[in-house]
Each structure stands twice: as structure tokens, then as C-alpha cells.
Amino acid sequence: MLTWGERRARRRLRAELRRLHDLYAPDLKQKKGGEYESLLSEYLSERDIVATQLDSLESDELLRRAHRWSVELPNNAWDQGPAGDRYLTAPARTAIERAVRDERRKEIKFWADLLIPVLSLLVALVAVIANLCG
Asked: What is the pLDDT of residue 92?
């Protein structure tokens, strides 16, 4: 789970991505040829820096969840962005999310398998006692 500061940073980075898109999109629609290529290159460069920071932040959060659920990281899981930020690759992110989800399901199943029979027994005892008393 993200901390307050991390959630705030994620909102700021997402807003920056939207701002960059809104800033460049109208000009990209109007430009042709070399001007278009130059402007597109500039936009993609700026967007990649912000997107990498966002990926790095989300990767850190996923890494904490993986450690919490004792999930091992796959080989070659990390990539590095233009600003030096490290982030999980898309296949690694998918594999870790799937593994965390599976571990959570195992935990829920364990507790359900433990508690459902106990609760059923309690309900049955209450019904028997109510039947004897009433």
C-alpha cells in the first residue's frame, strides 16, 4: 500500500503526464514532416522521464507487496529509465502481481477452510440448545 506521500507523488506524476499530453497534442495534430518528428521526439522524451518516475514509484509499492507475501522476483525483473530510475519490466510486474494475488487467495482459503467449519459447528450448537430450551 502506498504511503500518503507516495499517493500524492503518483497523483502529481499522472497529472504531469496529462499536462504534457494536453500541451503537445494540439501542436502535433497541426505539424507536418520534420517539425512533427522533432516535436514528437521532444514530447516522447519528456513523457518517458515522467512515466519512468511513475513506473519506479509503482514498482517500489509492488516490491513491498511481494516481500509482504514472500513472493520471489523473477530474473531480469528490472529496467532503467533515462533519468536513472529503476522500475520493474512489464512481464516481471505481471508475474509478481499474479504471484501476490495467488498468495493472497491461499491465505483467504486457509482462513475460510478453518473458520467455516467452526462457525457451522457453533450455529449447530446454538440450534440444538435453542431446540432443547424451547
From this structure: 94
